[in-house]
Specification:
CATH topology: Non-ribosomal Peptide Synthetase Peptidyl Carrier Protein, Chain A
Radius of gyration: 12 Å
Helix content: 40-55%
Number of strands: 0
Order of helices and strands: HHH
Structural class: mainly alpha
CATH superfamily: ACP-like
CATH class: Mainly Alpha
Number of domains: 1
């Protein structure tokens, strides 16, 4: 399983969130905290590179990137699929 701290590290690489990442709970809505559509694309690409995964079209909705916990769960599921 992917660790929450790994997701937070990736979020710190994003200009729109790096100043608030340490104050976010795992369930805070990232879009309410400053993530926008451009940032979500940057986030997706950073996650794909960091975890050697590829997001399918079905996982490209706003919900997949809405909270740290959901991101962790999504990445964990994709990582397991890639390993299989």
């Amino acid at each position: 399983m992917v660790d929450i701290s790994d997701i937070r590290d990736v979020l710190k690489s994003l200009e729109s969130l790096k100043s608030v990442v340490d104050s976010l709970s795992d369930d805070d809505d990232l879009f309410e905290k400053g993530l926008d559509s451009f940032g979500s694309v940057q986030l997706m690409l950073a996650l794909e590179e960091r975890f050697d995964i590829e997001f399918p079209d079905s996982a490209l909705g706003r919900r997949s990137f809405s909270t740290i916990r959901i991101i962790r769960d999504t990445v964990s599921g994709l990582s397991q699929q890639e390993a299989a």
